[in-house]
Amino acid sequence: MRGGLTDGAVRRGLGSAAAAVAVGAGLAVLGPFGTGADFSPAERYAYWIGLTGLMWLQTEAVAAALRRAPGWAGRPDWLQAIAAGLLGALPTTFEVAWAEGLLRVGGVLTPRSLFETYWSVALIAVGFYLPLVLARRDRRPKPAPVTVASFRGALPPGVGGAILALTAEDHYLRVHTETGQALIHHRFSDAVRELGEAGVQTHRSWWVAKGAVERAERQGDRHVLVLAGGIRAPVSRTFSLAVRQAGLIAEAD
Questions:
Q1: Measured torsion, CA atoms of residues 13, 14, 16, 18, in degrees rounded to the nearest 10
Q2: Separate counts of helices (H) and strands (E) for the chain
Q3: What is the tens place of the pLDDT at every residue in 31-66?
């Protein structure tokens, strides 16, 4: 459903939360990094489940931000998962330091101790989040191959209206329309060729309809096109000239 969470998204979120609790409980049983000897069982479970839950939430937030970042659009799921784990571990490192100060007498907090803590947290974050992302991808329903001449015929009921954008995802094509989006089995290059002059390719894995672009924003030395419905399409250097010639970025920008 547009503008909110779909049932599938809610189920994935609940499943991920359950996985985070399970991993935290498993670490509480194992008691690594001296927590088995230094903490009571109640402290150990609160410590590991609480911190693992925070780590998951922060990593999910980073992953969502990366998916919207022009430089990361279309990157492989595994690469985005590793990056999200490494970045999500940063705030968790300070949360671990705070929890350690409450539950266990330690030395003075130093850059070296924070650095060592970060890599321990990052190892757990990536080790947890990468399999989670890959499992989600494997459970994603595989769309049936398109057997009609036009890829529009493969869109499910309820996903219709004007096409706003196309994104390539491995061997699949995500079609963004006025009423939603769908993932179909189709070649990105074939769809771009079929739509012709209605839009322009902005990135190796993005095409946008000219009429759907509301504005262009600059992000560093790159641009991103903001489309109807809040879709953000990256503009790579390779395709920036074509985007300018289409009038989607002002010559002065």
A1: 160
A2: 7, 8
A3: 888 787 888 888 889 888 988 989 999 999 988 888
Number of domains observed in the structure of the chain: 2
Structure tokens at 241: 């000239």
Average pLDDT of span 220-234? 88
**CA 63 vs CA 60, 130, 166, 206: distances in Å:** 5, 11, 21, 19
The span from the CA of 136 to the CA of 121, in Å, is 22
Q: Is residue 148 very low, low, confident or very high in pLDDT (cuts 50, 70, 90)? A: very low
How much is the pLDDT for 86? Answer: 94
Query: 3-class SS at 219?
Result: strand
> Which domain range does residue 165 map to?
159-245
Both 116 and 184 in one domain: the answer is: no
- What integer best gives the mean pLDDT of the chain? 81
Q: Which amino acid is at 241?
A: L
132 and 163 housed in the same domain: no
pTM for the full predicted model: 0.53
CATH number at residue 192: 2.40.50.1020
pLDDT score for 64: 83
Query: Does residue 163 share a domain with residue 128?
Result: no
Of 128, 130, 126, 140, the residue nearest 174 (C-alpha): 140
CA distances (Å), origin 53, targets 39, 49, 236: 19, 6, 36
For residues 27 and 134, state if they share a domain: yes
Structural domain includes residue 170:
yes
